[in-house]
From TrEMBL:
The keyword Transmembrane does not apply. Transmembrane segments: none annotated. NCBIfam families: trpS. The gene is trpS. It comes from Sharpea porci. Its EC number is 6.1.1.2. This is Tryptophan--tRNA ligase. One of its GO terms (biological process) is tryptophanyl-tRNA aminoacylation. A motif ('KMSKS' region) lies at residues 197-201. Homodimer.
Amino acid sequence: MKRMLSGIKPTGRVTLGNYIGAIKPFVSFQDDYEMIIFVANLHSMTIYQEPKDLRQNTKDLIALYLAAGLDPEKVTLFLQSDVKEHAQLGWYLNCMVTMGELSRMTQYKMQVEKAKARKDTSIGAGIFNYPSLMNADILMYDPDYVPVGDDQKQHVELARMVAERFNHRYSETFKIPEPLTPRVGGRIMSLQDPTSKMSKSDPTGKGCIYMLDPINISKKKIMAAVTDSDSHVRYDKENKPGISNLMEIYSILDHKSYEEIEAMYEGKGYGEFKKDLAEIVGAELQRVQDAYNKIMASGEIEKVLDEGAKKAGRIAYKKLAKVERKMGITIRK
């Protein structure tokens, strides 16, 4: 069975975009792949997190993974910080990349531009160095595939390059992973600005649906979503980004193709389409929230994380020992 690996940061509340793009696909993958999924809480340290919020967001994220249908018997689910080898391998691999390579990473360049805009040149070193930790996260487990959105493919490409560099210098050690980009739902956009990704840090909150928000609020956000002056429900991402984004959500949650959706609303306006979509989103949120509440009350999260860390730790221990022997860090051969 092929192995697949992914991680998600516990910063901010989980959005419908996170659910559709990252969490929900894993439920279908878990029967076909050996899944390793971690909560990337070390990566959350690149910017300050209020401790109580980080703790709650981490717990919520794990509970939502399980509520979505991930089976701990099929999936290895753990906290990144519980497997100490991540940070150690991250340092070794950090010594194998150049400052030029790290400075070309999109996230770092975005932070530089934001710093310039606010006339503040102070950018945390974690923002610059985090791709090396991400390289370790990926390469530690020799995955065949790493599912990513279009905006994250750059990270997998860097991991591939570092793996090839290490293998060339020290002999075959890491598997070269392949990025896996979903055809639909990889990047759900803001409901108010369909040219921007749905973000946890949405300044108004109107463009973002949070998985644990009251259902009626989420329905209202769907009804108020930006579309266009046309009234034809048609998928055209370039010319009709707003309605296309809503159709993407509809397609994923109700298992219908764009062609089927277009046929269903032929001759009907956006109002009826939005009303139906609001009900579909509401039903999905209700199902997940009911499961979430049961999981939070059960106390099973700690057990799942403990078991996941043990399984991941066994793989990580062997890989790190192999890396250290190859590099000469340890005197053992």
